[in-house]
């Protein structure tokens, strides 16, 4: 569809260009210019090229061939193209609106929670660290910032094992995961859990929801287990992402 429309535009462009060159030649008469006949030739060569490219990439011939195979068993139905495009546009608008609403709810909740929070340099707070969940030490005890975190495969998330009621927090290896700024940020941003869940209930087509803090932690919903790379490093740092 995209290829086809861009070629259609290409054709329009050639067309306009042809008209403009001929008319300017007519007006300026004495100027040395490209003879209209040559321009016409180019345009038609260009047009032919466009047509063959469009045929090649739109797969129209293949479609025609396939159609021949099924001709007797298919039914032709008239479709109102304009209506179809309108419907598509409406669906897309609705989809973007829902995503934007979800985002707005998160931003508002984050602002509110941050406002309510009083920074406490000595704050102790155990959170679910994405790498440490379900990890145990030699004695079989949960490690700090870990703990039992129930995960279930979910086909909406590529069959990855997730937890739909909680988010997890990821901190890159080069940051101390109990740093006071991080612990405070993680603490107040717990408020986002219920917004994540609520957003997903309202719009089940949502996939991952995130909150990336300038302090360097990354909250991800649904909760999922992260594993460090082969060197034991968690390189991902939400502050380096383009968004
Ligand atoms: C998510 O994990 C928490 C902590 O283990 C657990 O209490 C909760 O039931 C889990 N949620 C789901 C949907 O499994
Ligand atoms: C998820 O797993 C189910 C059953 O194992 C399979 O039928 C399905 O195709 C998988 N979905 C994805 C997105 O991999």
TrEMBL record:
Coiled-coil features, chain-numbered ranges: 85-120
One Gene Ontology term, aspect cellular component: voltage-gated calcium channel complex
Major localisation: membrane
UniProt keyword annotation of Nucleus present: no
Membrane topology type: Single-pass type I membrane protein
TM stretches of this protein: none
Keyword Glycoprotein set for record: yes
Gene Ontology molecular functions: voltage-gated calcium channel activity
Subcellular location: Membrane
One Pfam family hit: VWA_N
Domain VWA N-terminal: 110-226
Keywords annotated in UniProt: Calcium, Coiled coil, Glycoprotein, Membrane, Signal, Transmembrane, Transmembrane helix
Signal peptide residues on this chain, from the entry's feature table: 1-24
InterPro entries documented for this protein: Ca_channel_alpha-2/delta (IPR051173), VWA_N (IPR013608)
Protein name as catalogued: VWA N-terminal domain-containing protein
Native source species: Ameiurus melas
């Amino acid at each position: 569809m995209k290829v086809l429309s861009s070629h259609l535009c290409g054709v329009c462009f050639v067309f306009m260009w042809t008209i403009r060159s001929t008319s300017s030649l007519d007006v300026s008469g004495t100027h040395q210019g490209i003879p209209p006949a040559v321009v016409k030739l180019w345009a038609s060569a260009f047009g032919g090229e466009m047509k063959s490219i469009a045929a090649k990439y739109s797969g129209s011939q293949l479609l025609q061939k396939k159609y021949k195979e099924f001709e007797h068993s298919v039914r032709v139905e008239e479709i109102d193209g304009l209506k179809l495009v309108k419907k598509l546009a409406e669906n897309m608008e609705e989809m973007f609106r829902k995503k934007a609403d979800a985002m707005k709810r998160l931003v508002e909740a984050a602002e509110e929670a941050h406002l309510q929070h009083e920074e406490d340099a000595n704050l102790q707070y155990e959170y679910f660290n994405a790498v440490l969940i379900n990890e145990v030490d030699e004695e079989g005890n949960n490690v700090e910032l870990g703990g039992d975190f129930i995960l279930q495969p979910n086909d909406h998330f590529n069959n990855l094992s997730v937890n739909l009621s909680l988010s997890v927090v990821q901190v890159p290896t080069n940051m101390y995961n109990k740093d006071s700024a991080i612990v405070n940020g993680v603490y107040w941003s717990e408020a986002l859990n219920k917004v994540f869940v609520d957003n997903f209930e309202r719009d089940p087509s949502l996939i991952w929801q995130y909150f990336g803090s300038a302090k360097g932690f990354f909250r991800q919903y649904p909760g999922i287990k992260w594993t460090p790379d082969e060197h034991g490093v968690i390189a991902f740092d939400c502050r380096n992402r383009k968004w």
